[in-house]
Design a protein that fits this description.
This is Esterase. The chain is of the alpha/beta class and 217 residues long. 35% of the residues lie in helices and 26% in strands.
Amino acid sequence: MNPKYQYDVHLPVNLEQGKRYPVIFTFHGKGSNERNMLGLVAPLAEDFIIIGVRGNLPLGTGYQYYDLKSLGNPIREMFDQAVADLEDFIQYATEEYPVDPGKRYLLGFSQGAILSMTLALTMGDQLKGIVALNGYIPEFVKAEYRLRSIKEVSVFGSHGEYDSVFPVRIGHETAAYLQEQTERLTFKLYPTDHGVSEQNQLDFLNWFKQDAELNTK
């Protein structure tokens, strides 16, 4: 199988033959790229396989996974295709690398967070957990997609109190929806705009370690 996405993969340095590792798939924001996400999870590189997935649509000097009719309004056909293609990519990477299929995580920012939450709802317990930073769940996903239970999926969601792209109201609405779907939700607000603060990063790094049952020292 040839993957539909360009990607960077970082394997643990001291890779043990025959061992399966937890994996984090990172999905960037609109107009960014996979390398901009690596710094967010680089401290986990000793224990996790990290796979940065690049959007397949050029946008300026960066990329995107789908285009928009307007802010917060994805072009449905492109969005549907991205969700299907990313699910296929996750399966491809699980077979291609020494991934523990019981410990597959997604981390996304903005457009990547939207996709991470959507994939959690369509893949259910095929994923161990997701981190969704400054995103939302499209209404058509909630109303029209074939959704799976995420009761067993761990979710770390965060939003900027002063987010000028997706107002904080959207963060609260997203958290309320997820709270109805799983008790394994951690949701936090940070005093930021549309970005990721140092404290936000520290919090989700610790969350990853705890959820994957790694040593948190």
